[in-house]
Amino acid sequence: MSIDERDPQNPTNPNLPSYGEENQSLDNQEYTNDPESIRGADDFTIEYIKLYPWNGSEPLDLTNVRIDINIFEDIFNNFISGNISLMDTWDLTTLFPLIGEERLEISFYRPGTKKQPASSLFGALLKPIYPDQQYQEIADTESYKISFRVVKLTNRKTVRDKAQYYVLHFTSPELITNKKKKVRLAYKKKLYSDIVDIVYKGYFASSKPLEIEPTMFEQDFAISNWTPSQTINIICSRAIPAGRAGSSYVFYETIKGFHFVSLEKLFEQEPKEVLLFQWSDVYVSPLNKAIDEEVRNVHDYDFVDYYDVLSNLQHGMYASKLLTYDPVRQRYFEYDFDYMKEFDKQKHLEANKLCTDGLDALGEPYMARFNVMGTNKDHDKIPWIAGKEPGIMPTQIEKYILQRQSQFQQIQNVRLALTLPGNSERKVGDIIEFALPNAMGWPQKYGDEPEKYLSGKYLITAIRHRLQKDAYFHDIEIVKDSFKSEIEYIDPVPLYIDAMSKI
Question: What residue spans in the chain does CATH classification 3.55.50 cover?
Fold first, then answer.
C-alpha cells in the first residue's frame, strides 16, 4: 500500500486530520498542480515519442497511444535496446505501414520541484501542522533523448473492433551497422585502445562519442572476419589499463555514448547519489517524507547473488594457475594468482576483502582453476628470435588472464536488484551509495544504522527504464566487489536476550 492510500490517523499525533475532515481537501492546500512540476516520486514528462515511416515522411506522435515503454542498458551488453507496447486504433500496421524499417525517437525527463511540501496527499495534509518543515528543492533532470531502429513486431492481436495491441522492439542503429560489417585488418605496434578508436570510427559510422581508457603495451593484432563489436569485445578480454594491476575492460552504450573502460576506472568515480530504503508500512519522522527523499527511496530490493564459495573456486577468484608454453624456445612457465596478495594492488569499491584469512578455500587451491596457453614472452628481448622477426610484440597474457578471471568473479558475489523511482540521468557505469537497512535485533545500540558490510558503494551494471502510462520506475542491478567494514564476530545471543527482555 502506498503512502497516499494509508489512513493518516496516528495515535501518537492526535492533531493529524483524517481525509474526511472538512476543509482539508487538496483544493484548500498550497499544493502545485503545475504539470511541469513533479507531484510524485515516479512522475515523468514525455517530450515526444516520434515514429518515422520507411520513406522519411513526417513522424507520427505515439505519446497518447503507447501503453508502456521499456529501455534496457547493460554494462555487459554492447548496445541499448527496448520495446514499446501500443494500443493502435489507426491501423498503423497497414497504413504506415509497419515493416521493420521505421525509426523511433524518444525524449523524456523527470521534472523538478517548486518547493512543494511533499509528493503525496499525505504530505499536503500535514503542511498546516508542520508549517516550519524545510524541504529540499530538486531540479529537472536532463532529457533522456535517443533515436532507435525498430527491428521487430510481436504479440499482435485484435483487442476489440478496430483496435489492435502489439509490441515494437527497437535497438540502437549502431547494432544494424555492426551486424552488416566485418573487420579484416592487421595492426603492428598499436595500443589496443588505439585499435578500438580506429574500429569504432571506421566501422560504426556513429555520431555518438566514445569514451576510451588508454591501455598499456603495444601489440600486433590481426582481426579475421569479426564484427566491430566482436573485435572490441576480444580486445576487452586482453587489454590492460595503463597504470593498473587488473584487466577488467567492458564495452557498452549509455545515453551519453559508448564506453571502453575498465571496472577499476568506474570504481574510482564519486557516488552520483545516495539511495535509501524505508519499509512502506512504517511511519518515518517527519511523517511527510519530502520529495527529495522519495525520489531516492528504494521500493523493493532482492539479493540476486550473495557469495558462492564453490563458484568462486571454480572461476579462479581465490586463486588460479596459468601454465604457458613457448613452442619456439620449447620452455614452459607457471604463474599463480592469490586473491589475498593481489587485493590491495587493484582498485575496489570498498577497502575490505570478501573473506577472512581463515577461509578454507584459500591456501593453495591453484588447481581449482588451471589455464594452459601459448606465449611469446620475452621474444622481443632474445636476439636470435627478435633478429628474425624485428619488432615482435609479446602478448602479455601473463598479466591479464588470471587477473581478469578473479575480478569478474568478485563482482558476482554481491548482486542486488532494486526497484525505485526513475531518473533519466541515472545510467549504467555510475557509482551509487545504498543505505541497506540492517536487521540487527538490538535497536538500542544499532538503531537505524545501515548494514555494516553491504551498505556503501555499488556499481550499476544494468538498468531497465520502465515508463508506464503514468509512472516512471527503474529496475536496476547493482554489484559490489568488497565489504564496507572489516569482518568481525558478534555473538547474537546477548542481543536477542536484551531485545526480548524489553518486550
Answer: 178-265
Cα distances (Å, whole numbers) of residue 283 to 6, 42, 46, 135, 421: 10, 20, 33, 18, 19
Q: Where in the chain is the domain with CATH 2.40.10.10?
A: 3-175
Look up the CATH number of domain 3-175: 2.40.10.10
- CATH class of the domain whose range is 178-265: alpha beta
Tell me the longest C-alpha to C-alpha distance in the chain: 97
- Give bridge partners of residue 145 from the DSSP assignment: 107
Per-residue pLDDT of the chain (503 residues; tens, 9 = 90+): 333 333 333 333 333 333 233 333 333 334 444 656 777 788 899 999 999 999 989 999 999 899 999 999 999 999 999 999 999 998 999 999 999 999 999 999 998 865 444 444 444 444 444 455 455 567 788 999 999 999 999 999 998 888 999 999 999 999 999 999 999 989 999 999 999 999 999 999 889 999 999 999 999 999 989 999 999 999 999 999 999 989 999 999 999 999 999 999 999 999 999 998 876 544 444 444 567 778 888 999 999 999 999 999 999 999 999 999 999 999 999 999 999 999 999 999 999 999 999 999 987 767 788 999 999 999 999 999 988 888 899 999 999 999 999 999 999 999 999 999 999 999 999 999 998 888 765 555 555 678 889 999 999 999 999 999 999 999 999 999 999 999 999 887 777 776 667 66
Percent of the chain as helix, strand, coil, to the nearest 5: 20, 35, 45
According to DSSP, residue 286 is labeled S
Sign of CA dihedral 369, 375, 380, 383: positive
Count of Cβ atoms closer than 10 Å to residue 210 Cβ: 17
Residue 458 CB partners (closer than 8 Å, separation 6+): 349, 416, 431, 432, 433, 434, 478, 479, 480
Q: Please, are residues 164 and 158 in contact by the beta-carbon 8 Å criterion?
A: yes
Give span(s): CATH 2.40.30, the chain: 270-275+299-306+411-501
Instruction: Give the number of other CB atoms < 10 A from CB of residue 367.
Output: 9
User: How far is it, in rounded angstroms, from Cα 89 to Cα 67?
Assistant: 13
The topology under which CATH files domain 270-275+299-306+411-501 is Elongation Factor Tu (Ef-tu); domain 3 (2.40.30)
Instruction: Return the closest-CA partner of residue 376 out of 333, 323, 321, 328.
Output: 328
Q: What is the DSSP code string of 181-244?
A: --EEEEEEEE-HHHHHHHHIIIII---S-EEE--B-S-EEEEEEEE-HHHHHHHHHHH--BTT-
pTM: 0.85
Strands (E) across 327-394 are located at 331-338, 370-374
Q: Which three cell numbers stand for residue 324?
A: 604457458
Question: Shortest CA distance to 232 belongs to which of 171, 178, 176?
Answer: 178
